[in-house]
Amino acid sequence: MLRIIEIEARLFVRDRLNSLFSLVFPSLLLLGLGAIPALRTPDPQFGGLRFIDSYVSSVVVFTLVFIGIQRVPAVVATYREKGVLRRLATTPMHPARLLVGQLVVNFAAAILSVLLTIVVAYVVFDVDLPHHPLGLACAVLLGGAGTLALGLVIAALAPNARAAGGWATVVFMLLMFVGGVYLPRFMLPSVVVKIGSYSPPGVEALQQAWLGTAPDWRHLAIMGLVSLVAGTVAARTFRWE
């Protein structure tokens, strides 16, 4: 298992464009938005906070959704299309180990990206550090696990890399929309806000932990359930070729 994780980590680093995009782009997005003076001005619509303060949780949503939904299915589907998985099938390795290796490496990348976002927000824009660090850690853990598990389901079911990319893009756009990345959540219909609160990676839980109190346990529980169910489906439907 450790050897598999080591190899997946090396492959992640060698894919320089995608790895740098995964790690750095969320912070660059925050820097770009923060450069707009109006977004650094306190606004009653955000409870007297600045737009940049309330949007940090949406940047974290982007990080987790991009890595889990866009990157993971593309990598695994490409392995299958190029025959890498067919060769691995001749070994005693259980497919669950390959999926776990993907989870560990990509989740580590997501954690690094979130930490970089926190540092940039605090140092450059004086955004408060998370008010509930443990709650934020739980939200990132369960929300990230949920998005990665959904990505693995796409990887397991997609017949080829092109199909995996298409399916992933649809799910990516939906999760970004309900997660308040495209539009601030106060501009979204109430039903969409509700869906986003319970859908991985759980923007409501992230925002609660960052700006105020501990996340709602129901949000965390549902994201944990999604992770468990989707992870089980991915492991049972995984195909070597």
Automatic annotation (TrEMBL):
The keyword Kinase does not apply. GO terms for cellular component: ATP-binding cassette (ABC) transporter complex. Residues 17-241 form the ABC transmembrane type-2 domain. The chain crosses the membrane at residues 20-39, 59-79, 99-122, 134-157, 164-183, 220-238. One of its GO terms (biological process) is response to antibiotic. InterPro entries: ABC-2_transporter (IPR052902), ABC2_TM (IPR013525), ABC2_TM_bact-type (IPR047817), ABC_2_transport (IPR000412). PROSITE patterns: ABC_TM2. It comes from the Bacteria. One of its GO terms (molecular function) is ABC-type transporter activity. Its main location: membrane. It is found in: Cell membrane; Membrane. Keywords: Antibiotic resistance, Cell membrane, Membrane, Transmembrane, Transmembrane helix, Transport. It is a multi-pass membrane protein. Belongs to the ABC-2 integral membrane protein family. PANTHER family: DOXORUBICIN RESISTANCE ABC TRANSPORTER PERMEASE PROTEIN DRRC-RELATED, TRANSPORT PERMEASE PROTEIN. This is Transport permease protein. It comes from Lentzea aerocolonigenes.
